């Protein structure tokens, strides 16, 4: 059974354009069902973190195409796709 730390070491890649989104920082777990609802990828820091950071990327579990040994492939078409939600931290 995979552990959360196993997910955090994998890089997340968009299969539509090959863009690397980063590494998973957190998981959104539904406590009632015990299932993972979303992968949360932290936003990149801007100029050593002095001027804030970009928004976190929240990827719904249903957008995962494949989980491999080193990478998690997700599908979406652009940064404004309604299936990928962005959250302020």
Report on this structure.
The chain is mainly beta. Helices cover 6% and strands 38% of the residues. It contains one helix and eight strands, in the order αββββββββ. It has one helix at 4-8, and strands at 11-14, 20-23, 26-29, 36-41, 56-60, 64-67, 71-74, 85-87. The chain has a four-stranded mixed beta sheet, with no helix packed on it. The chain has a four-stranded antiparallel beta sheet with strand order 3-4-5-8, with no helix packed on it. It is globular.
Compact summary:
With 89 residues, the chain is mainly beta.
| Strands side by side in the biggest sheet | 2-1-7-6
Gross morphology: globular
Number of strands: 8
Radius of gyration: 13 Å
Report strand %.
35-45%
Order of helices and strands: HEEEEEEEE
What attributes does this structure have?
globular, mainly beta, 6% helix, single chain, 8 strands, 89 residues
How is the topology of this model organized?
Blueprint (H helix, E strand, L loop, with lengths): L3 H5 L2 E4 L5 E4 L2 E4 L6 E6 L14 E5 L3 E4 L3 E4 L10 E3 L2
Parallel strand pairs: 1-7
Antiparallel strand pairs: 1-2, 3-4, 4-5, 5-8, 6-7
């Amino acid at each position: 059974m995979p552990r959360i730390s196993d997910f955090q070491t994998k890089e997340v890649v968009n299969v539509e354009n090959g863009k690397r989104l980063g590494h998973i920082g957190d998981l959104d777990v539904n406590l009632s069902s015990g299932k993972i609802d979303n992968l949360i990828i932290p936003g990149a820091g801007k100029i050593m973190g002095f001027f804030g950071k970009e928004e976190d990327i929240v990827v719904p579990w249903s957008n995962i195409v494949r989980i491999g040994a080193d990478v998690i492939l997700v599908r979406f078409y652009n940064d404004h796709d309604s299936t990928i939600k962005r959250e302020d931290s």
